[in-house]
């Protein structure tokens, strides 16, 4: 059967379904939504007939299975029992028809013969129960915070004394956006926390087990929250998007930064861990035993195929370690930015993966991107305006920010903290990225509407560099290194220049002769960590710039530092006379200013802003000389 | 009235309407489509009620005007008479109610009081008649090919003898995708051409005028076809997207390259001309005289407001001049690429402009983008497959190309040459861009399907650099200059290195002392023309690198060329010892190889491919030395 003729059914018709529909339309893929709301965000995007029933409705799920070839979900709180039955029934049917074949030839069950459920019901089931999810991850060697199931309150007290406070009490199921998590500061608070959580526990779907529905988790001290969107192909291929930082407020993710402003080696570790986690969660065995018509017994693996997009939330701990917080078996809020910023969006890749199409490139196609949620605001912020009026005013203001794309979800009412839409904003340079984030954060907070001050937005957008790097600190683009602190008086002018151009940089001591291994490490990791240029200063034998250049593919700028003899010519020759194959961009003796300026010119090729600022700088120094000419003319050379 | 509450009506429901709908959904803007096909490409994207009538149907247009606040069109062949009536009627109504006001206060007609038609009916009318369109452009000083209206055949003969052959005979109205244009090689062919064209002429809407419907156009020799998408705001703001090259085949645009591989100064001229053309075409006066109830006569300007997106097609002539070919008053095929490649898509900007919202940034957010149409193919190519089957196979194969996004239009039948969809492909480097274009052109031609050879695609994608720059030649990224041809033997190694890394470059002679003005011109235009790095070689007093650096914001790499005396130390000092403010990245004496390699390292910051290739190069030179070590070990130093 032609892949692009396959029909897809989606459980849930919210904003994720809506964005999935955008991708489906572009590929002419037929999508059927199951959602009780006839005008749900996803359904607004098509003139087809959908199923207007609850996506947990057993009958609706079976109806859907008759209409489509693949069932997927845009929410994890689905009826996995019904989904499992669909898969099992059809696999049994396949086996029986196989065993009934008269010609004796084996008829391999084709995955296209039955309605597939992707990700597999088993994987969704494991993820639904966060306790089981963490257990599976831990068993497969994926680092998670320490956790333990609480049979009852007294068990929780005992675990509390072992874990020490503060700790987290968590509901195993139906928890999202912070709901179902209680922060417990001390044993005194445990009783209340337990009762609060218990009263909202929905009994386990498997009623035979006595289950408190609660587990305890040790509090981890993290410095940042990260997230990775992982794509699992139907053929075991696993790829992932760049790691992002997610900044939460009141348990709702409200700012996503791509790429995460974290050094590239940490990013690599985070991406590896996320892929490992998805591999673990999608390979939980699920075998059923059936008896065929001929009496033969047979084990069938019902989850050998699992595919889809997964959102993996991570914690970056103080010690640099990364652990998994939790996984969502669907496109994720932290991956909205991929629509504008990556080669292929998470939504298209979800469709590609569940349909067995080639997976799309996950590369960032822009330098910087951020995503900010537009939430319903409380009446204290709305003022006299109604909720929707305020949201519209926010959308209007957001259009003033260059590089921004607004996605409204078509929801009719703006309840407090409800996700009404989001903005993705892209930027070419870290300075612009930061200003644009500041402007949008200001707008979505509703403050701008209250102040009724549109000048404020342009003020932020043209803001001085002093306000730069307030919400986020980008990673350094230039590394300034020198052999000794005695070179600092010369080398600091490079730093001053970079600062004045708004270029993020790092400065440290790396000596070719006294810390050779540190030098190798520094040079070899420089590119991965995110550096684009290295400025190296050295005097005398001056090996540092050339040795660093030999160990990296980055451009290295060498500053010959003048020593006690030979007027710096020794340093100059050592740095500039590199052998064929390894260039060092050498500047004048002791002229670290020029090294900084050369770095800005180099960065100008990638980041337009620095190139523009360099033009401004050339103008400035021309005007300085013109000022001197004027003075010379007016006072005369004798009095100058 | 809140802008985001305004309703928009669209005449036509094809692919342009479909893509307009994508943008409308994201902003929660209500769109009503007028199209006879109930399941037209645009209508498939919404669960709202549309008007299932022909978009030229007078009644349908009046019905629409009652339902929406702004009417726009996704096709220019609309009933401008009906549209004009809507605008006129309502403006007259406004004037009358104003003059009837009892309190004597003037009540300014608010543009929100009536249904606006944007772009204005007058502008659409002018564009519909290509002869009038060209006349208006010419009158406003916008360069177009020489043209003249043909009253009848004998007039055409006379014009032909003046214009000389070959020339073009063109239908004034209802021409698109090459239909309505006839190429006439000589007077012998004129009769047939005239008859062919005449038989298809639709009479002028204004029947009072005797009109042949035909005009003649002098054939211009162009080297490239360019296009610019211009956005005209309701407040006279005019902005435009970067100029693109459009490559046509059989009169249908089938490849769009963004940015146009043309030097930046030409691009600037093209963009200026396009904006001027739109300004001309949107400011044709259209005043009506009415008599108010109180007997007062009044002139009302009915087209003072015109807004929307315009596609301007241009010719780049052999002499470097640029002229306008024609204008479309709507989003344009040459602007599809903006969805993936620019800060704001042409579709969103069309909505923003007609609704009076702030216009979005038109900047390219990726390094390179291309758009390729997916057309219905003739049965000779389809082979045994049906048309739609082949299209699906093409879509499937296209997903193998990284950076590609497919847009299918939801058309049910694949007629020959019908626009079924398009692919936008983005790339980081010119090498990747070129390979991806080659792969997609191969796929959409149907050849790959016929050959049933998926290996061919990966072969193209990893192709050797020899096949690079076949469909398009990117503009140079590096400029190599030297003071004299005597420097060439040294400087050519820089060129060789760039070639081996696949970096597009230019090489020429620029002398600081013998061609000082050429040097100033070269340096000052370098960035605009598209260069990212300049390599300058010079000997002796060696002023070239430093002087060039003083005249550009680009990084300049200086190569000290060894002269007859002083061993090149004179050149080295002249180049490296630049004053504070103007750096030159100096490499070793005579080491132009290293200059080339440094340029590659610098470009690696913007184009990942060059950075990857630099890592490969470092590996290669390491292995070369290891080979020598092995040889030394095996043959001994005496025999080496």
From TrEMBL, chains A, B:
UniProt cross-references to Gene3D superfamilies, sorted A to Z: 3.40.50.1970, 3.40.50.20, ATP-grasp fold, A domain, ATP-grasp fold, B domain
Enzyme class: lyase
TM region(s), chain numbering: none
EC number from the UniProt entry: 4.1.1.21
Domain ATP-grasp: 134-355
Catalysed reaction equations from the record: 5-amino-1-(5-phospho-D-ribosyl)imidazole-4-carboxylate + H(+) = 5-amino-1-(5-phospho-beta-D-ribosyl)imidazole + CO2
Example GO biological process: 'de novo' IMP biosynthetic process
Molecular function GO labels: ATP binding; metal ion binding; phosphoribosylaminoimidazole carboxylase activity
Involved pathway(s): Purine metabolism; IMP biosynthesis via de novo pathway; 5-amino-1-(5-phospho-D-ribosyl)imidazole-4-carboxylate from 5-amino-1-(5-phospho-D-ribosyl)imidazole (carboxylase route): step 1/1
Classification via Pfam families: AIRC, ATP-grasp, PurK_C, RS_preATP-grasp-like
Keywords assigned: ATP-binding, Decarboxylase, Lyase, Nucleotide-binding, Purine biosynthesis
Record-linked HAMAP family: PurE_classI, PurK
Family: In the C-terminal section; belongs to the AIR carboxylase family. Class I subfamily.
Name assigned to this protein: Phosphoribosylaminoimidazole carboxylase
Source organism of the structure: Smittium mucronatum
Organismal lineage: Eukaryota, Fungi, Fungi incertae sedis, Zoopagomycota, Kickxellomycotina
């Amino acid at each position: 059967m032609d892949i692009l003729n396959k029909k897809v059914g989606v459980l849930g018709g919210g904003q994720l379904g809506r964005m999935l529909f955008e991708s489906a339309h572009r590929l002419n893929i037929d999508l059927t939504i199951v959602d009780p709301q006839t005008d749900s965000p996803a359904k607004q995007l098509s003139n087809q007939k959908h199923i207007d029933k609850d996506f947990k409705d057993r009958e609706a799920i079976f109806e859907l299975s008759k209409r489509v070839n693949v069932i997927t979900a845009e929410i994890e709180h689905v009826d996995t029992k019904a989904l499992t039955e669909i898969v099992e029934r059809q696999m049994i049917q396949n086996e029986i028809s196989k065993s009934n074949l008269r010609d004796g030839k084996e008829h391999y069950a084709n995955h296209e013969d039955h309605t597939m459920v992707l990700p597999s019901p088993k994987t969704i089931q494991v993820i639904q129960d966060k306790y089981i999810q963490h257990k599976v991850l831990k068993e497969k060697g994926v680092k998670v915070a320490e956790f333990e199931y609480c049979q009852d309150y007294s068990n929780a007290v005992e675990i509390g004394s072992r874990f020490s406070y503060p700790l987290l009490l968590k509901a195993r199921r139906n928890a999202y956006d912070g709901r179902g998590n209680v922060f417990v500061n001390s044993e005194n608070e445990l009783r209340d926390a337990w009762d609060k959580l218990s009263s909202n526990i929905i009994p386990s779907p498997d009623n035979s087990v006595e289950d408190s529905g609660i587990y305890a988790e040790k509090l981890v001290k993290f410095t940042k929250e990260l997230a990775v969107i992982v794509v699992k192909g139907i053929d075991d291929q696993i790829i992932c998007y760049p790691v992002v930082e997610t900044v939460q407020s009141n348990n709702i993710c409200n700012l996503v930064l791509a790429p995460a402003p974290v050094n590239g080696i940490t990013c690599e570790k985070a991406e590896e861990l996320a892929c490992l986690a998805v591999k673990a969660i999608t390979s939980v065995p699920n075998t059923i035993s059936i008896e065929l018509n001929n009496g033969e017994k047979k084990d069938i693996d019902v989850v050998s195929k699992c595919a889809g997009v997964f959102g993996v939330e991570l914690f970056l701990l103080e010690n640099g370690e990364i652990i998994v917080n939790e996984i969502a078996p669907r496109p994720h809020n932290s991956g909205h930015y991929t629509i504008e910023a990556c080669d292929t969006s998470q939504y298209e890749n979800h469709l590609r993966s569940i349909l067995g199409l080639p997976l799309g490139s996950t590369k960032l196609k822009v330098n910087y991107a951020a995503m900010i949620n537009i939430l319903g605001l409380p009446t204290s912020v709305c003022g006299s305006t109604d909720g929707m009026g305020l949201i519209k005013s926010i959308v209007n203001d957001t259009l003033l920010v260059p590089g921004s794309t607004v996605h409204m979800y078509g929801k009719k009412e703006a309840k407090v903290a409800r996700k009404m839409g989001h903005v993705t904003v892209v930027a070419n340079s870290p300075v612009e990225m930061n200003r644009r984030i500041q402007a949008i954060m200001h707008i979505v907070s509703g403050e701008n509407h209250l102040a009724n001050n549109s000048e404020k937005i342009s003020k932020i957008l043209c803001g001085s560099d002093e306000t730069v790097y307030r919400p986020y600190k980008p990673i350094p683009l230039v590394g300034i290194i020198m052999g000794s602190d005695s070179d600092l008086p010369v080398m600091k002018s490079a730093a001053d220049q970079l600062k004045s151009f708004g270029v993020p940089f790092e400065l440290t001591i790396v000596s070719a002769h006294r810390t050779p291994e540190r030098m190798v490490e520094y040079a070899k990791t420089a590119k991965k960590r995110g550096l684009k240029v290295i400025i190296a200063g050295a005097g005398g034998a001056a090996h540092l710039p050339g040795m660093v250049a030999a160990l990296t593919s980055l451009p290295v700028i060498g500053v010959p530092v003048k020593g006690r003899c030979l007027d710096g010519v020794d340093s100059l020759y050592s740095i500039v006379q590199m052998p064929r194959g390894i260039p060092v961009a050498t500047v004048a003796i002791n002229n670290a200013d020029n090294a900084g300026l050369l770095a800005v010119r180099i960065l100008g090729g990638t980041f337009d802003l620095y190139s523009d600022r360099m033009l401004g700088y050339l103008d400035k120094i021309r005007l300085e000389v013109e000022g001197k000419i004027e003075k010379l003319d007016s006072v005369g050379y004798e009095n100058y």
